[in-house]
Write a structure and sequence with these properties.
With about 625 residues, this protein is an alpha+beta fold. The protein is about 35% helix and about 20% strand. Strands 16, 18, 19, 20, 23 and 24 form a six-stranded mixed β-sheet that branches. A hairpin with a 2-residue loop joins strand 2 and strand 3. It is globular.
Length: about 625
């Protein structure tokens, strides 16, 4: 009996082995990089000459030190071998079928809860410092958690090309003003430029122990726990707010590029934070849609609260301007109740989009009316009879008032009148005019408050920065053109529109400044490095709001092979940081010449000469 039972067990075990699935055939392995070829050769020689050494740890450490000390010429042997293997791999390996992307769980570094906990521990002096920088609205933050299912639903309906949300059967455009209404951050001011000469932020990088990965969030939390409220606190708070809620990246740490606009802490309140936040959100969502990163960066809290404010579940209602940003209206209880109502209706997107009124909310701290001395005498010494008696209404309407607003009291701006609330007094002013913020760069416009923000978003005098690392010049695009041609005439290349021009870029060059001879407009030929080659693109140094674009042609050749890109330039107010969502040409390393230089031929067409019958433009559009 025992023998028979063992026999049955053996037969059953053999049957299970036969039923095992065959292993999938491993696809062609990707080639190794130049470091791997060097390390293999070095470790063999090291092991032979150091028989007393046991294991690979010491050999690998020695290989790493040797590789770091080698020059580019010494590495050329291994780099060339790696390129040859890569070229053969690209030409012979079968194309991989892309795996369908299915994101079920949202991964994000946007954490309003962390910022909420820090805000609760701030002293009165620290809160006053936060308000002085224009970030006082964050002190009213009540939301501590993101509704990830809602955020993922919104990301799937985020059109990055149009910067809009396509929900509830409508396309809702997003603008910096929406950021101002939801988050309470300024939607006007100078563009935030987080790039510049690296030597200007060396001390700041060292003080924050910044690495290539970024600045530690925990380090910032430790510094914010100190009671001081000076410049170091202000700088640490801005970095922490940007890294945890306003502009988080896909990484855990805070981007050290933010240090560029924190060198002068006194100018923080002058920046257009609404535009910066929205631009970063579009960039991060675009990278997420392209599958370049699994985690989603950007201010997802803004998207969540914007949805709550824009989509009504109770049918059409009239919008009443609030005294503060929407950020203060949504706490955990309100959000929980809203989510419950969403589930009762069957999910997101079953509400009705509200008609948003064109009303701008501004917070001020003082409100003073300067009355003309000849007319002020008619009101007497006491203000109560004049404001409380109907008989004096005509005199009040006839008087001219100059209103000076500062920081905390609400001001509601409609289409015609400005209502200034100062305590229990309301003053209606026919027109309040103010100069454009870009007056120092040449803009002479004086506008009503109703049109000021709209004008400044598209002002042609918006500041642009010099692209050279050793220069900190900032001015309008026209001023920058004159500055570059007079101070840096030998640091760029001049060209003529509609004329092809050959250009060579060294391995260590990341960009080349191009200046048009006809009108002096500056362009950047940007070069980046990827795993298998260089990325090349052309951008124009102009305000981001500028609608004018230039058609350009990029050609790179090697023997009978050639690569070509026709596209339109995108406008940036300075050097391009990181990898912007624009068209680019990927040129394999094998297209480099023997000296390691990248040779390209460029041609930029003047936008004024491009018409509907231009064949080059038709080709680019198609």
């Amino acid at each position: 009996m025992m023998g028979k039972r063992k026999l049955e067990e053996l037969i059953a075990l053999e049957g299970k082995k036969k039923k095992k699935k065959k292993k999938k055939q491993v696809a062609t392995r990707r080639p190794a990089c130049s470091w791997v070829y060097f390390s293999r050769e070095f470790i063999r020689e090291y092991s032979a000459s150091h028989p007393e050494s046991s294991g690979l740890k010491a050999a690998t450490k020695a290989a790493s030190d040797a590789w770091k000390s080698m020059s580019l010429e010494e590495k050329e042997k291994y780099t060339k071998r790696s390129r040859e293997v890569w070229d053969n791999y690209l030409t012979t390996a079968p194309a991989r079928a892309p795996k369908p992307r299915k994101q079920t769980n949202l991964v994000t570094r946007c954490s309003p809860g962390r910022l909420f906990n820090v805000l609760q521990r701030l002293t009165p002096d620290q809160k006053a410092a936060v308000r002085s920088m224009g970030f006082g609205s964050l002190l009213s933050l009540r939301c501590r958690t993101l509704r990830r299912s809602l955020c993922l639903w919104l990301l799937e309906r985020f059109n990055t090309a149009r910067c809009s949300l396509e929900i509830c059967g409508e396309r809702i455009p997003l603008s910096p003003k929406d950021v101002e209404l939801v988050m309470g951050l300024a939607a006007s001011g100078k563009d935030v430029v987080n790039s510049g000469p690296d030597d200007l932020i060396v001390e700041l990088r060292n003080s924050y122990n910044a690495t290539n990965r970024g600045i530690s969030v925990r380090l910032l939390e430790q510094r914010l726990a100190a009671p001081e409220a000076g410049e170091e606190f202000k700088r640490s708070f801005i970095l922490y707010a940007l890294g945890t809620v306003l502009c988080p990246t896909a990484r855990l740490d805070v981007s050290p590029s933010f240090l560029h606009f924190l060198t002068n802490i006194d100018t923080i309140h002058q920046y257009n934070w609404g535009k910066f936040l929205l631009d970063r959100l579009v960039r991060e969502v675009s990278r997420f849609h392209q599958g370049k990163q699994r985690a989603v960066g950007g201010c997802l809290l803004f998207l969540q609260l914007f949805y709550y404010e824009t989509v009504s579940l109770e049918g059409p209602v009239s919008m009443v301007p609030a005294l503060g940003p929407c950020l203060s209206s949504w706490g955990e209880e309100e959000i929980t109740e809203r989510e419950k109502r969403e589930r009762e209706l069957g999910g997101y997107g079953f509400g009705e989009v509200l008609c948003r009124e064109s009303c701008l909310r501004i917070e001020s701290s003082r409100c003073r009316a300067h009355l003309d001395s000849s007319r002020a005498g008619r009101m007497g010494t006491s203000s109560e009879p004049a404001l409380g008696c109907e008989g004096n209404q005509v005199e009040r309407d006839q008087m001219d008032r100059e209103i000076i607003m500062d920081e905390t009291l609400p001001v509601y701006i409609g289409d015609k009148n400005v209502v200034v609330v100062c305590g229990d007094i309301e003053v209606v002013v026919e027109s309040v005019r103010k100069a454009c913020q870009n007056i120092e760069y040449g803009c002479k416009e004086t506008l009503d408050y109703t049109k000021k923000s709209e004008h400044e978003e598209s002002c042609m005098y918006s500041p642009c920065s010099c692209p050279l690392q050793e220069c900190d010049f900032v001015g309008s695009s026209e001023q920058l053109s004159l500055h570059f041609s007079s101070k840096h005439w030998d640091s760029g290349r001049r060209f003529r529109y509609n004329c092809p021009q050959a250009i060579s870029m060294d391995m260590n060059e990341s960009f080349l400044v191009l200046q048009a001879e006809e009108d002096g407009i500056l362009f950047l030929l940007n070069k980046g490095i990827e795993t298998i080659g260089n990325t090349v693109m052309i951008t124009c140094i102009r305000p981001s709001s500028s609608k004018e674009k230039f058609l350009y042609d990029l050609v790179s050749g090697r023997g009978i092979s050639s690569l070509r890109l026709k596209s339109l330039t995108q406008n940036f107010p300075g050097r391009v940081e990181g990898f912007p969502p624009v068209d680019f040409l990927l040129i394999p390393f094998r297209f480099l010449n023997t000296s390691g230089q990248l040779n390209v031929e460029i041609c930029i067409w003047n936008s004024a000469e491009l018409g509907s019958d231009c064949p080059a433009l038709d080709l680019a559009i198609s």
